[in-house]
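Predict the 3D structure for this chain.
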Amino acid sequence: MPTRIVVHRAELSAGALARVVRDGEYAPVEGETCELEAGGQVLALGRLVHRRGAWIFQVQATAAKEGEI
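Done. Predicted structure below.
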């Protein structure tokens, strides 16, 4: 099942935004609020945290029923 993390908002300079558009990639920023989405459904809200050299998704709220988040 396709899974992705969706960043809600971020502040980028014009140059940084141009790099995102050019490369099709966005490097995470610690503490950003995100959604964990799988199969087109939001499963959880959380934030990105850098620990032991890796980025992880730290869950803050889960969706108990469809459309709750």
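The chain has one domain: 3-62.
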